Known about the structure:
Blueprint: E1 23-26, E2 29-34, H1 39-54, H2 59-79, E3 98-105, E4 108-115, H3 135-142, E5 145-148, E6 156-163
Antiparallel strand pairs: 1-2, 2-3, 3-4, 4-6, 5-6
Amino acid sequence: MTTHPAPTVHDVLHEEAGEDRPAVGLNDFAVCALSGAYSAVAQARRFTAATLEGWGIHASVVSDAVLVVSELTSNALRHATPRGTDTEEPRPDAVCAAWLALAYQDSGVLCAVSDPSRAVPVLVTPEPLAEEGRGLWIVDRLSESWGWTHPDHKGKTVWAQLRAPRSAG
């Protein structure tokens, strides 16, 4: 189920992203600064898996959340961060290319990626043999709901909510 623009805009934090110092967490909330390099997608996957496993989230939900975060992060880096040309990696010299936030509330996990772009995501039905264009389709299928905040001069946040009971032990 898709939910479109959220009514509030979350402030994007502005400090330098460090590839190897990704996490600041408190109880059931964690945030990770993502650099502009494509390796940030792998960093986001590792951060998500470690965080949700630490919270005792069931393994099947962790794998779905890792895939959702991977798609949201890939989209942020591909479509929302500055580049020299279409074939270049995003500029790693940006203050912070994107932010990943995870929150556990009311038996669900919220995965949110903030980026500096004002462009809103567009869900398309991919052609059967298309090599790309399935990211938001995957997010839509794996999440209970997803959407984005209204873009402003700082950018936007794209989020997805997954049902996530804690593991029993």
